Amino acid sequence: MSSPSLVAVVGNPNCGKSALFNALTGLRQKVANYPGATVERRTGPLLGNDHIELVDLPGTYSMTPRSPDEAVTTDVLKGTFKAERRPDAILCVVDATNLAQHLRFVIELRALGVPMVIALNMTDLAARERINIDASALAHKLGVPVVETVAVRKKGLQDLKEKTIEALQMGAPSTLYFGASVRDYQRAARKIAKDVTLSEGIGHKTTRVLDNVLLHPVAGPVILLAILFLMFQAVFSWAEAPMTWIEDGIAYLQTGVNDLLPEGWLLSFLSDGILAGVGAVIVFLPQILILFAFILVLESTGYMARAAFLMDRLMAAVGLNGRAFIPLLSSFACAIPGIMAARTIADPKDRLTTILIAPLMTCSARIPVYTVLIGAVIPNTTLFGNWVGLQGVVMFTLYLAGIIAALIVAAVLKRTVAKGKAHTFMLELPKYQTPRLAYVLTGLYERARLFLRRAGTIILSVTILLWFLASFPAAPEGAASPVSYSLVGIIGGWLEVIFAPIGFNWEISAALVPGMAAREVAISALGTVYSIGGSEEMVEAGVRAAIAANWSLPTAFSFMAWFIFAPQCLSTIAVTRRETAGWKWPLFMLGYLFALAYIASFITYQVASAIIG
Ligand SMILES: Nc1nc2c(ncn2[C@@H]2O[C@H](COP(=O)(O)OP(=O)(O)OP(=O)(O)O)[C@@H](O)[C@H]2O)c(=O)[nH]1
Ligand SMILES: [Mg+2]
Fold first, then answer.
1. 96 lines ligand 1 (CB under 6 A)
2. Does the model's pTM come out above 0.90?
3. Which of 8, 110, 292, 456 is at 20 to 30 A from 60, Cα to Cα?
4. If you take atom 30 of ligand 1, which residue's CA is the nearest one?
5. Does the Cβ of 15 fall within 6 Å of ligand 1?
6. What is the ipTM of this complex?
């Protein structure tokens, strides 16, 4: 007896392949792992016909794989996969509620020249959405049989079996030409879907109407800008109250500890070290959660995919694609979730570039540093009548400087270390939906957990280390600047030599020691250096006064420039190491950011000194 014919069940993710495979094979399946891969190999004979063996392959969007799972499918289909022979026929599953999108892959598969049958699945859902597809017209256009199915109710299976057996007997269908590029395929898919769709259904109609406005070449970008503006506005205004609660809570705890413990190193450690340090970090939680609430809601409505689409042209100018938009937007809250979100970028070079520029987006940890600096050196005056505050303009400029630097760096990286071929942007635009609360809440929980873990581990250890470095060796009784005797002071003294050309004095150099680990601690570190104690507000006010009194303007500007670029977050380095699986890229990131920071500060300092004198 000859070996059975192999029929591969393929299609886009989540279209019902496994449900169909289960229904067609009954319970006689074999499940094993492909050697060396974590991908499951699920096979089983067709019910009632042992001469046909079905294999359920991982879902994929195209013949260009985006993940190792998808690569298994495409390799098997091309016949280049070692652990599986090339299938004799393809059973391609298509989601009837999303025809245009799924057809693109069908057209690509059609070019393989293998016998093929299409299961137009989920026809029950399509009927519910009042989508009406002419299956025989579709079969005619594609030149292969199309069978309407409902996999979960075993509807259409008998017909599907018969058509599959027939297709195997008839051999490869005649070749049809749909074009040469992915864009051609997409265009052909849209055209066919349009031609065979008798009624497009309610959801598609709404989506089409909305997209006419939201993807409009002029109105689209304007609306996107307005949404982003509102979003950042909300992040700052809504977060104000909860941030005050957190600050009050920490102050309350500090008072409690102060009442409980006698004056001494333990009190200092708990109150000035741990509570002040960790408090300075978790105070950003409200801002981060509000920004992510916006992102997650917009994502679950389907709008974020449109935003990426709109941003694609701008991103393409520097060699990135639109998918980098969401990771970079997230990085305005914190680079860590931003870098992790870069996983959605399929192209490894694009993903790497996105990860490397994420720290240039102004994260919320820079805000208190900017606020204190601006408060200290920029006069609180208004421009253009009473419309625009000068301090606000400087803040905006600092944000903008980060974005522009990121675009330039991306352009350079894409031409050098992350050189890759240009990609056509293929993003499936999902139907619009009402946002799902569960999705938003689990997303928020995940972000909060990540962030708090960082506060609880890295920031906590840094705070402890800082406290130790600043407290020992102890200064002699009555010393004017106790810190100068401590380890922080000693290390600051060494660093001052390096930082003198960019205008940093001993105090800044000393504060940079702990500030390298996490940006937020820079202000409390300056407080320590200037021997300013008390609650967070008192430290901020004290540091502001100290800067105004002791720093020259060029030094303050140079420090701002430093903060735009310098890598000062251990967690970012750690997450980059994890996401790029090695030390090469995090070290590269450290190096280029330091170089950029030093050069920017040097230029700022020298130019400002020349102008101001
Ligand atoms: N209403 C309806 N639901 C279906 C149908 N076919 C599958 N489903 C459901 O759709 C979901 C996805 O089905 P799967 O069979 O896991 O899809 P898949 O294509 O194997 O997905 P991946 O392996 O992740 O690519 C499941 O919840 C199924 O129960 C159908 O014809 N009608
Ligand atoms: Mg499956």
1. no
2. no
3. 292
4. 122
5. yes
6. 0.98
